[in-house]
Amino acid sequence: MPSGDVEVFAALGDSIFDIREDARGGFIVGELAENAARIMRSDRLDAKPQRLALPTASEYQVAGARIAFMQPNLTGLTLCELASLACAPLALPIDEDNRFDWLLTRDAVWYRDGASVVRYDLARRAIDWRSKWGPAALGLSIAVRPDETGLLVAREAPPAIDLMYAPVARK
Fold first, then answer.
1. What is the CA radius of gyration of the chain?
2. CA–CA separation, 88 vs 96, rounded Å?
3. Angle at CA 43, nearest 5°, toward 41 and 44?
C-alpha cells in the first residue's frame, strides 16, 4: 500500500520538468530553459545530471536507445542514438501546430497529420501507415502498444451547449 511519503531528488535541481527512462536503465532529464528544455542524462535520480551535447528542445521523446526532439521555431525532428549522440534530421511536418501530437517508438515516429495519424518507419524513412481518423484532443493524444499492434487516440467531441428559455409566471 502506498505510504504517501515523498522522496525529493534534490541533486536534479529545481528546474526539472520531465524525466524519462532510457534503454540502459538511466534517465533522460528535461530542464527548463526559457521556452525550451536542456536535455540531460543521469544514471541515478539522486545524482546530478550531465547535460547532453544537444541543442535545446521544445519537445522531445525517448524510446529505447533513441531520442527525437524538435527545436523551437523549426519544422521537423532530429533523431539521435543516445549511446553516441549521432543525430540526423527527419523532415517531418511536425511544428508548433502539432508540437504535442507525436510519439517516438522503437521503430517509428507516429504523428498527427491533419485529420490522420501516420506511422513513419525509421528504418525505411517513409510513411508506411495512415489512419482515416486522428486525434482531436489537446496534449499528447497518441499512445502505441510496445509491439505496435495497437494505437490509442484521444478525441474530444465539440461542446454541446443547450440554451433554454422558460417563461416565469409572477404574481
1. 20
2. 20
3. 110
Q: What is the pTM of this model?
A: 0.82
C-alpha cell read off for 166: 422558460
Strand 59-63 and strand 16-21: the pairing is: unpaired
pLDDT in tens, the chain (171 residues): 567 788 888 888 889 989 999 999 999 999 998 889 999 999 999 999 999 999 999 999 999 899 999 999 999 999 999 999 999 999 999 998 888 889 999 999 999 888 888 999 999 999 999 988 777 666 567 888 888 888 887 777 666 555 555 566 555
β strands within the chain, DSSP E? 16-21, 27-33, 36-42, 50-51, 59-63, 66-70, 77-81, 87-90, 102-104, 108-113, 116-121, 126-130, 142-144, 151-153
Answer left, alpha or beta for residue 48, where phi above 0 means left and psi between -120 and 50 means alpha: beta
- β-strand 36-42 against 27-33: which pairing, if any? antiparallel
**CA 140 to chain CA centroid, nearest Å:** 6
3-state secondary structure 22-71: CCCCCEEEEEEECCEEEEEEECCCCCCCEECCCCCECEEEEECCEEEEEC
Phi, psi for residue 14 in degrees, rounded to 5: -110, 10
| Dist. CA 88–CA 123, nearest whole Å | 13
